[in-house]
Amino acid sequence: MSARAPRAEYRLVAKKGEGTFSEVLKAQCIKNSKYVAIKCMKNHFESLDQVNNLREIQALRRLSPFPNVVKLIEVL
After folding, report:
1. Contact status, residue 2 vs residue 40, Cβ threshold 8 Å
2. 39-76 as b/e, with b when 16 or more CB fall inside 10 Å?
3. Which end of the chain is more exposed for a tag (fewer CB within 10 A), N or C?
């Protein structure tokens, strides 16, 4: 599926979509069996700070309490 595998807490189920900069995978959390979407970026980032500075990540963090916005669980 992806060159960079998500952490071992998730079981990959299917690839849901792919774009220029990322691909989205459907996964299931091993601990609580909940389904999640994992977005795997194609770009390589040198640090977690570079990822946290992405506008998409900043927007998700600001909008996370709203019911119609996807909840950001973690950044790997």
Report:
1. yes
2. bbeeeeeeeeeeeeeeeeeeebeeeeeeeeeeeeeeee
3. C
The 3-class secondary structure across 29-42, one letter per residue, is ECCCCCEEEEEEEC
Q: Which residues does residue 13 pair with via DSSP β-bridges, in sequence order?
A: none
Token pair belonging to 3: 């060159």
25 and 61, same structural domain? no
The answer to whether residues 28 and 35 touch, using CB atoms and an 8 Å cutoff, is yes
Residue range 13-56, pLDDT digits in tens: 999 999 999 999 999 999 999 999 999 988 989 999 999 999 99
